[in-house]
Amino acid sequence: MERARSSPSRRRLLKGAALAAIPYALLPGTRAAAKVAAVDYPLAEWAPATTSNYTASNRPATYPLDYVIIHVTQATYPTTLSIFQNPQKKVSAHYVVRSADGHVAQCVREHDVAWHAGNWDYNTRSIGIEHEGWVDQPAYFTNALYEESAKLTAAICARYAIPRDRAHILGHYEVPGTDHTDPGPNWDWTRYIRLVNFA
After folding, report:
1. DSSP string for 132-151
2. Residue 123: strand, helix, or coil
3. How do residues 49-99 score in pLDDT, each as one tens digit?
4. Active-site amino acid positions
5. How many domains does the chain have?
6. In this structure, is residue 1 part of a structural domain?
7. d(CA 191, CA 188)
8. For 3-38, what is the HEC assignment?
9. How far apart are the first and last CA of the chain?
10. Where is the signal peptide (predicted)?
């Protein structure tokens, strides 16, 4: 005797309709869902550095977060991302900000230690933000770059209770023991700190 096929239950129909309404990219287990979940700053694109270029950690439990360190790449945005993805370079930063439009890429999770400061103690206690450009070419420091970077820095400061001042938002050149000069004399610190505080 053939068994009668049961019709789908109302619950299964409603569940199927609910899943159909969710964009595929956001469903658990999809590649894009992993991409969305990977960023700490919602406006950032995930562009991961190779695991050879940073130290896995569990900050702020393992190390307190006290600083945001401002860098200038001395390279283009795509070149900087490719450097961070090259395991032989042994360098990374948490974020890179593009000059033309202020687009933000996150390369290292904030709980991990990026290798950006040239000083292990400062690496462990800071978030590093690279800005596309050259220290001697102020045209790279666009309104969009300042504004979007300031929003990012403000969000980091809020998340970890870092004061929004020059004692805690440092230039790479201010890290003890460094031989770097970035962000350089063309970086407008007064404007930047004002934008961070108003963000």
Report:
1. SB-TT-GGGS-HHHHHHHHH
2. helix
3. 999 999 999 999 999 999 999 999 999 999 999 999 999 999 999 999 999
4. 130
5. 2
6. no
7. 5
8. CCCCCCCHHHHHHHHHHHHCCHHHCCCCHHHHHHHH
9. 72
10. 1-20
